[in-house]
Amino acid sequence: MNFKAAYRRFRQWQHDPFAYRLKDSKSHRCTNCGSDFVGNFCPICSQREGMGPITWKSVLQSIVEVWGLNNRSLLYSLVQLFLRPGYFISDYISGKRQVSFPPVKMLALIALLGLFVDYLIGSPIGGVFNNDFDFAGDKMLFIDNAFEWMNLHPEVMSLILLSYLILPNYFIYRYAPRNPHHTLPQGFFIQVFTAIAFLIFNIFDDLTSWHWFTYVIGNIWTYVAYKQIFGYGVWGTLWRVVLALVCAHLLALLMLGIDFSIHMIQTGDSNFVDGFKLFVKLLNRMVTNTDI
């Protein structure tokens, strides 16, 4: 087997997996609007060439459409998401909508699959701090409940946490060699596809408990995806990915701190500034395991 030739074919497929060609040059009569046309689709009503009376094949096609196994299939979109992640996402955000199963719908289906897997394996759910962090009284309970909510809704949290990357990416990748003038709506769909990938990684982790393997593969996938999306070199991609992740974590902590401070005001325990200071101390307690 010629591995170099196989790799070249794989690289060619990564860059351009679709070959849009006419089936033939014959004239067709559209069964929907009666127009004569040459091509794969009617230019008047957009119905596909070759549509005819209902058959058993039509029944099968109707069934598989429910699960996204027809044109732009869910399974093929997932194959692309893992074998050509950045090119696949780049195609979609640049206007090639036919390359992908609808991403938000795909996210919802994978999230449902994740919930089903959690139900089957009985994933443990509970507070993060439990009884090991009983300082600060009921103030700590608010943080514990917040993290417990995250544990109860991992599929929702995947999108919420990854959404904190949208704003940093907007500034970091605005002048990238590929997909320049990066926009916030593009960032939204990038994170939708990223959330899909990480939900699948989470499902794999739940089924295998290969935590370190999943962690390493997830980071490699992120690096490859961003390199292919924006076209920077090895080090240019690496430091930008790290910077974006650091900014996203800081933004997430900032939002949680603001939420905690508002909670302190509502309970009458503190003002906003004192509440935020207490939140910082609680985070320090988590990291250093020192008393407040």
In brief, what are we looking at here?
It contains twelve helices and two strands, in the order αββααααααααααα. Helices cover 65% and strands 2% of the residues.
SSE string, helices as H and strands as E: HEEHHHHHHHHHHH
- Separation, N- and C-terminal Cα atoms: 65 Å
Mean pLDDT: 78
Q: Give the strand order of the largest sheet, numbering strands 1, 2, ... along the chain.
A: 1-2
Biggest sheet descriptor = 2 strands, antiparallel
Q: Ranges with pLDDT <50 over ≥5 residues?
A: 125-137
Shape assignment: globular
Q: Which radius of gyration do the C-alpha atoms yield? A: 24 Å
Structural class: mainly alpha
Name the helicity range: 55-70%
Strand content: under 5%
The number of strands is: 2
- Number of helix segments? 12
Number of spatially distinct domains: 1
Give a structural overview:
- Helix 4 packs across helix 10.
- It is built from twelve helices and two strands.
- The protein has one domain (72-288).
- It has helices at 3-15, 56-66, 74-83, 85-93, 103-121, 138-152, 154-163, 166-172, 184-208, 211-230, 234-267, 272-288; strands at residues 27-29, 36-38.
- Strands 1-2 form a two-stranded antiparallel sheet.
- The protein is globular and about 75 Å long.
- The chain is mostly helical.
- Mean pLDDT is 78; it is low at 125-137.
- A hairpin with a 6-residue loop joins strand 1 and strand 2.
